[in-house]
Amino acid sequence: YVDPSRAWTVLVSVLVASCPCALSLAVPTAMAAAQGAVTKLGLLIVRGHVLEGLVKATDLVLDKTGTLTMGQPELKEVLIARPEFSRADVLGLAASMEAGQKHPLALSLLRAAEVENVSLTTLSDPVINLLGKGLSSGVYRLGSAVWLGAQQIAQDGQYGQVHLADDKGVIASFLFLDTPRAGLEKLLAAAKSRKITVHLVSGDDSATVAWWAHHVGISNFKGACSPEDKYHYIERLQKEGRFVWAIGDGINDAPLLARADVSIAVGAGAPLATAGADAILTASSLAPLAKSLLLADKTQLIIKENLIWALVYNLLAIPAAMMGWVNPWVAGIGMSLSSLAVTLNAWRLRKA
How is 32-56 classified by DSSP, letter by letter? Predict the structure, then answer.
């Protein structure tokens, strides 16, 4: 169809026009722009599948203390169960067991002991941390009502609580009050608009978890969960064909984050939790996660637009070059403009 004397020109035109620059740039430019945008929002992406995973997510699993709430509870009340112990005795003993711990309730006990000038008790036995249960030192145990068999004296409502016991029974209960984390309403609204089912799974007492779940409008919840329980909770959802997105902050959440399809650790949480997460929330608010959901949708749309544009360009430019209708320099300009169009389209994500 083409004059043989123009074979070299046509060959160069076809090679230039078929250079897959736009096609190869379609996905990475969009992902780079989107990741830059979410980083500015306060979400540091560690593994590249996060945005794609957010689009696929069908279920969101949240921890309570430090995730749903701010994780800075205040000690509101000390309920002493045995008259031979004073407030200073039980607070000093509990603070001694919590010394060196990073859990929000531990930090709250240590702050309270410091404010009240309570001296720490010297423990004769080392403190053993039993994940999902509490602390043990000799005859003393400090932890959840389920572990200590203190369900009868556990307080219903929004109060977080730990109980102190020895080999004779419960000694005292410590009640803490926390506040919801900023941006929680926006995150839950964004999940609801995407028809993502929200779950609250926590190691706190069941009554406290139930109160917070009803307070923020979460219908699926489970309290008194060990790290293994959290892991199996997500595993069960995945066996039902669900794509799970999880958010947590503590050591107890490490198995949960490791099992989830997409995991986000709250940056102020334990190093073990952040080390295994796919992304880290560096902001104190959950609002960036709601914006990231919308940005993930927009990223998928931009990628599809880029791929369609690159495909249309190649379908038009390559046959035209093969027929000899396009000179090499025109094909070069067309290829450059195609790549530029893809890049500029992806650049729109940086303003999201």
Answer: HHHHHHHHHHTEEESSTTHHHHHHH
The pTM for the full model equals 0.74
Q: Which residue has the tokens 């400090």?
A: 142
Q: Model confidence over 243-276: pLDDT tens digits?
A: 999 998 877 788 889 899 999 998 765 666 667 7
**pLDDT value of residue 152:** 62
Q: For residue 349, how many C-alpha atoms fall within 13 Å in the half-sphere facing its CB?
A: 33
- What's the chain's length in residues? 352
Nearest in space to 213 (alpha carbons), one of 276, 269, 158:
158
Q: Say what the pLDDT of residue 177 is.
A: 84
Catalytic residue IDs: 63
The DSSP H or E segment spanning 121 is none
CA distance linking residue 87 with residue 167, whole number of Å: 19
Q: What is the rounded distance in angstroms from the CA atom of residue 92 to the CA atom of residue 121? A: 6
Q: Which phi and psi (to 5°) does residue 305 adopt? A: -60, -45
Pull the structure tokens for residue 68: 């749903």
Rg of the chain over Cα atoms, rounded to whole angstroms, equals 28
Tell which residue, 144, 135, 164, has the closest CA to residue 224: 144
Q: For 55-93, what is each residue's pLDDT tens digit?
A: 999 999 999 888 888 877 888 889 898 899 999 999 999
Q: What is the DSSP string of 281-311?
A: E-SSSSHHHHHHHHHHHHHHHHHHHHHHHHH
Tell me the Ramachandran region of residue 149: left when phi exceeds 0, alpha when psi lies from -120 to 50, beta otherwise: left
Residues 6+ apart with CB under 8 A from 332: 16
Confidence at residue 221, expressed as pLDDT on a 0 to 100 scale? 94
Planar angle of CA 243, 31, 268, nearest 5 degrees:
65
